[in-house]
Amino acid sequence: MELLKKNIRMNRQKSRAMNQITLEEDMNVPDSRSDVGDIIQEEGNLKIEETKILENQVLLGGYLEVKILYVSDDGERQIHRLDTRVPFEEKLNLEGVSAGDNIRVKWDMEDLNVHLINSRKLSVQALITFSASIEELYDTQAAVELHGIDEVTVRTKELTPLSLTVQKRDILRVKDEINLASNKPNIGELLWESVQLRGTDVRVLDGKIDVRGELFIFVLYAGDDENGTKQWVETALPFSGSIECAECRASMIPDVEITLASSTLEVRPDYDGEERLLQLEAVLELDIKLYEEEQVEILADVYTPVRELTPVTSQEIYESLVLKNFSKCRTNERIRMEAKQPRMLQICHGKGEIRIDDARITERGVQVEGAVYVSILYITADDSLPFARMRGMAPFQHTIEVEGIQPDCRFSLQTELEQLSTMMIDSEELEVKASVNLGVLIVQVHKEACITDVEEHELDLKKIQELPGIVGYIVQPEDSLWNIAKAYYTTPKRIMELNGLDGEELKPGKQLLIVKDAAGMG
Length: 522
Known about the structure:
By secondary structure, the chain is mostly beta strands. It is built from 3 helices and 22 strands. The protein starts with a strand and ends in a 7-residue tail after the last strand.
């Protein structure tokens, strides 16, 4: 007896963990800066500098980068900016993690608050949620053919395992320039900048990955004129680039997460030597996972009427692709400011962040609930506080329809703000319109018994002799020609010949004549 096996590469989620921490730190205002009167707005970005694997744990280290825009506490009421870093070190319990594992770490800042302790001291508080996951490839041997036994009959089954073929991290650098419009004054001092990543598109080609999108830029600055006039620039810079990847093929299924790792805007002189040029350098971080599907036919069962064959199996877990899909969700909401806020004269800039409250599998697909949290910088009617911020949210609910989805499916969800527009209704209310991209990769988790060996024994002659030599059999709904032949120690071919059947398909209620033929005893 010769059992031929094939190596099958399978993919599964090895481990997953989530943890929430609060970062708190008091910061002193540098001597070079004016006293703080009122805080206009704050913004934070987390930098993970270290990911260290411990025993069943992952150590994350880095810092929260916080920038603050405020109005000075003096008669001039000038606008200034502060920057600070809040370090952190956090351990996530990740069962089974080991050296060499490729860990995907995500973070979400659910809340950031900067409070005024006094004019020279501020309190920074942030609520951060970390999530980490590990996928692993593993190989298993499964039987595909059996030779060397007379009249052996095999039943096969087809698997379509999804293999994680490429898993890597890479970066794409974007460089561009912004020229001030002729009606804008030269730049005296940068007060605030915001760079947002929008509308990204990833395409896998042979040997490379193409990335496209746009960077939405906002800059608030003080002009170099005598009064330091406050001006702003808002523009979108399209970008495109490629990541070399020798293992890539156009047929692969991508799950690529793109984040804006860092960005800098520096003032440069133009050809006339005037400070009218903004030079942008941005680093995009790509967390790349590329999958491939493989169709594999393996043995599901074996038997022969001349020997007793007992398959030896091992249970394997693997995943198959259900759906890779992108959909859009739009939301529209009116936001009214609080009574104590200064009234709005003009909107300067709107920034939005997506937060997912719940994403779960339903009968129709994947239901996603969340909101676009918006922060609006505007010019006020109050001379003592020329700028202010208004915050609000535009909730959304969307179902990514997936036919045939099962409760035990696993999915990864990626969200991106594609468009955001704000419009004043009056001095106290505005309308927010947003378009959200939702990308989902859904896999079905399978538990499959794979034949790894076949044990061969002599037939139980007493058991066979007790079976009738000829049987009249009525086909039941769950029957197959294979099961009937195996139960009565014959073969599907002999049943077909004896009953004049053209194929193996059986209809319930059909009458069959079956003749036992085990080891010539029929």
